[in-house]
Specification:
Blueprint: E1 2-5, H1 12-23, E2 27-29, H2 31-44, H3 51-58, H4 73-82, H5 86-100, E3 107-110, H6 113-117, E4 123-128, H7 131-144, H8 151-167, E5 180-183, H9 189-208
Parallel strand pairs: 1-3, 1-4, 2-3, 4-5
Helix pairs in contact: 1-9, 2-3, 2-4, 3-5, 7-8
Bound molecules: 2'-deoxycytidine-5'-monophosphate.
Length: 209
């Protein structure tokens, strides 16, 4: 089982997908679960400041991963705040653990995969990059999707989200003690993927010996 954690726009999603394809494993983007709760809450007009309402929005989740709104800025902001609620995290735990525990293995990416969801993962990568590089990547990605994006706003947003994800009491964003810290600031997409495969191969080889 491969755990890929890291902050917003670090490239962890791209890397997790590429690892899954390379090793022939199923992949779960766990951020989508939090985003789906946020979108549910938003559509239903619930209050993100209420843990109770956020928990209600976690019931009966139906996720359409191609729904563009899952990745919109308002939904990203709400996802970041509702992910601090312990009851919401608990509500999403089982389906992540089941996915992680499936025979043959899996790749999961998120914030707490190596620390909470799958502390026994064979290989753990903590993918990171400077806030400036991540803001540049996010701007490019938003513009490519035809969405408005301003570098300064995106950078401020990334910093605020880092702060919330790192400072929360439950499952804060922090590398597992046995995670490999992988900084992608100076690597393009292909180089980052190649290096991630090399790092994970090293861990897998180690675990078989
Ligand atoms: O990875 P992402 O940006 O799609 O995640 C959206 C939000 O969900 C993010 O602000 C942090 C939260 N999240 C989390 O708390 N734990 C996870 N395993 C994945 C995401």
């Amino acid at each position: 089982m491969i755990a890929v954690d890291g902050p917003a726009a670090s490239g962890k999603g791209t890397i997790a997908q590429a690892l899954a394809a390379h090793f022939g494993l199923p992949h779960m983007d766990t951020g989508l679960l939090y985003r789906a709760v946020a979108l549910n809450l938003w559509r239903w007009g619930g209050d993100p400041a209420s843990e109770f309402e956020a928990l209600r929005a976690s019931d009966m989740l139906s996720i359409d991963p191609v729904d563009d709104e899952l990745r919109s800025e308002p939904v990203s902001r709400i996802a970041s705040s509702i992910s601090a609620y312990p009851s919401v995290r608990t509500a999403l735990l089982d389906r992540q653990r089941q996915f992680a525990g499936q025979p043959g293995g899996a790749v999961l990416d998120g914030r707490d995969i190596g620390t909470v969801i799958a502390p026994d993962a064979t290989a753990k990568l903590f993918v990171t990059a400077s806030a400036e590089v991540r803001a540049q990547r996010r701007v490019r990605e938003l513009l490519e999707r035809g969405m408005p994006a301003h570098y300064d706003d995106v950078l401020a947003d990334i910093r605020a989200r880092d702060e919330r994800d790192t400072a929360r009491e439950v499952a804060p964003l922090k590398p597992a003690s046995d995670a490999i810290i992988f900084d992608t600031s100076n690597l393009d997409r292909d180089a980052a993927i190649a290096e991630a495969i090399r790092l994970v191969d090293g861990r897998l080889a180690h675990s078989h010996s």
